[in-house]
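We were asked to recover a plausible sequence for a given structure. The inputs and outputs are reproduced exactly as logged, with field labels preserved.

PROBLEM: sequence recovery
POSITIONS: 578
GIVEN STRUCTURE:
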């Protein structure tokens, strides 16, 4: 029960009090150390990645700081000297630790929270000061001084609470100052200054409250049941509190290091995941047990039929089997069983070396894959959908193999086919016929009617050549108005002559472009060489020489290399356009 001195009451009969300066300083250090331990934990509370982690840090910090505050009270009481024995009621003493822990929890919660900081600090400082005061006065209520009673000066009583509240608010603001962080070693100075002010709030409240109390002698002796002496209680509580505070500091340092490491590991993991998700390639990662641990959405979109398997935990064997069933043709033409067995063997033995391979799926898509075995077991694979590249490649190959204007075989492809045909003819003993075709009187069409008209004439000439030639023949445009035809068959010179006549006859027919009639003819050189002497260069040279012989003879004729000009007669007609 708290006794308050009446206003103007005399205190001259009060017992004398004295304090040990060394123990007073020690009590302040206990309070500051406990505050420092708690404030260290406040940063861990704010940085905790889960609600459970925040509550664990808050509980640990509250207990460490609360017991430290509570211990400061008893250390301060150890500094007090009275002419009578002092003891404490154990149940009330134990009860006094509750407001200390609650006040510490409130302080840490305010410092680690968010929102309007001024309102938080004012309300929090007020409640913390009240909590510290409640702890002190409950502890004083447990005090038993033999043959005396104690009473309080109301003004100093109120001043003790004001000191705790004011310094508590100041500690909050110092903890949050940004200015010092630029010049005084960052956040560590914030914590040290704040812990110093918080310790001053606790010690200031205690000694102001002790200045408010007066002890008066009485004839009655206080009950001594369930009590413990001041000295041993103070020593025990102080030792335990300091040990808890030091352990809390060590735990906080270790915990924050672990927290930082965990955070960096999580951030690195998230960065890796983001990087993998940003890839345009499909990505999978298997552990050493053959279980899928990582897979991006690109791969899931690449294989929508396997969406149910594209998740962590899927076995490599199951995924390879499912992929094999989706392929139109397996590499090397092996069976699905052999394909799966080979991949499982390579996985087990770590023999995937990243050798690229292409797979064609049943839906026509092409997949380009690379698989790498990991040093410590497992497998990483990167798969790329190259269907568009394949389609473009086919387009470009077609363009490269065709004459852009007429659609006939290009000169380069024609020469390549001619070389293969010569080799085949030498090996099989067959002869080979080559026709060089040059248009007569084509230049006047270009000069008089423009290149557009000339191009249309060339397109029609190419169409007639394809129609006249056989399916087994190769027709090419060599450039300008020159064409070539390769007869890779058993036909001899007679067959080549017959084809040359048909070509001359069909090209003599009028060509109509844009309502205008054009006429051209052809000079054709034929080279037929027996198989032992067949080679590309002499064959092309012979056909070219024969074509010029036909041209010199007036055109609209064919000439066989090594023969006289053929006497095949054609109906004379004027050339040009009508």
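RECOVERED SEQUENCE:
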């Amino acid at each position: 029960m708290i006794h308050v001195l009446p206003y103007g009451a005399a205190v001259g009969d009060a017992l004398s009090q004295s304090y040990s300066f060394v123990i007073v300083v020690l009590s302040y250090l206990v309070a500051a150390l406990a505050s420092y331990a708690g404030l260290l934990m406040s940063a861990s509370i704010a940085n905790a990645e889960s609600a459970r982690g925040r509550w664990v840090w808050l509980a640990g910090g509250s207990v460490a700081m609360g017991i430290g505050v509570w211990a400061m009270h008893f250390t301060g009481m150890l500094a007090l000297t009275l002419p009578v024995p002092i003891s404490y009621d154990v149940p009330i003493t134990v009860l006094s630790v509750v407001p200390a822990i609650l006040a510490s929890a409130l302080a840490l919660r305010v410092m680690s929270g968010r929102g309007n900081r001024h309102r938080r600090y004012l309300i929090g400082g007020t409640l913390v000061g009240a909590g510290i005061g409640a702890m002190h006065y409950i502890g004083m209520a447990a005090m038993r001084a033999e043959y005396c009673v104690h009473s309080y000066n109301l003004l100093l009583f109120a001043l003790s609470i004001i000191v705790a509240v004011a310094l508590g608010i100041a500690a909050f603001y110092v903890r949050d100052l940004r200015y010092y962080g630029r010049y005084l070693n960052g956040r560590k100075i914030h914590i040290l200054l704040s812990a110093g002010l918080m310790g001053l709030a606790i010690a200031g409240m205690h000694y102001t409250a002790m200045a408010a109390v007066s002890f008066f002698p009485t004839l009655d002796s206080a009950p001594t049941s369930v009590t413990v002496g001041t000295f041993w209680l103070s020593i025990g509580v102080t030792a335990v509190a300091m040990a808890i505070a030091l352990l809390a500091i060590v735990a906080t340092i270790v915990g924050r290091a672990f927290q930082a490491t965990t955070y960096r590991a999580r951030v690195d993991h998230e960065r890796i995941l983001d990087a993998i998700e940003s890839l345009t390639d499909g990505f999978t990662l298997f552990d050493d047990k053959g279980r899928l641990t990582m897979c991006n959405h690109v791969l899931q979109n690449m294989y929508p039929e396997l969406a149910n398997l594209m998740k962590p935990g899927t076995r490599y064997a199951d995924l390879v089997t499912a992929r094999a069933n989706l392929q139109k043709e397996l590499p090397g033409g092996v069976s699905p069983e052999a394909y799966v067995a080979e991949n499982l063997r390579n996985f087990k033995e770590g023999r995937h070396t990243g050798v690229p391979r292409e797979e064609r799926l049943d839906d026509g898509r092409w997949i380009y894959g690379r698989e790498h075995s990991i040093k410590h077991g497992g497998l990483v694979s990167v798969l790329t959908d190259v269907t568009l590249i394949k389609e473009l490649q086919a387009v470009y190959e077609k363009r490269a193999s065709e004459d852009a204007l007429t659609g006939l075989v290009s000169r380069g492809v024609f020469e390549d086919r001619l070389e293969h045909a010569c080799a085949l003819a030498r090996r099989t003993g067959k002869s080979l016929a080559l026709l060089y075709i040059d248009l007569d009187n084509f230049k006047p069409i270009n000069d008089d009617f423009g290149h557009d008209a000339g191009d249309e004439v060339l397109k029609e000439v190419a169409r007639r050549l394809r129609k006249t030639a056989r399916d087994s023949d190769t027709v090419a445009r060599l450039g300008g108005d020159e064409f070539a035809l390769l007869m890779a068959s058993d036909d001899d010179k007679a067959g080549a002559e017959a084809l040359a006549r048909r070509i001359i006859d069909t090209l003599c027919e009028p060509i109509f472009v844009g309502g205008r009639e054009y006429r051209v003819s052809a000079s054709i050189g034929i080279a037929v060489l027996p198989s032992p002497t067949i080679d590309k260069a002499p064959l092309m040279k012979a056909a070219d020489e024969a074509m010029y012989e036909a041209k010199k003879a007036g055109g609209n004729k064919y000439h066989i290399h090594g023969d006289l000009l053929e006497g095949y007669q054609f109906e004379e007609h004027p050339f040009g356009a009508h």
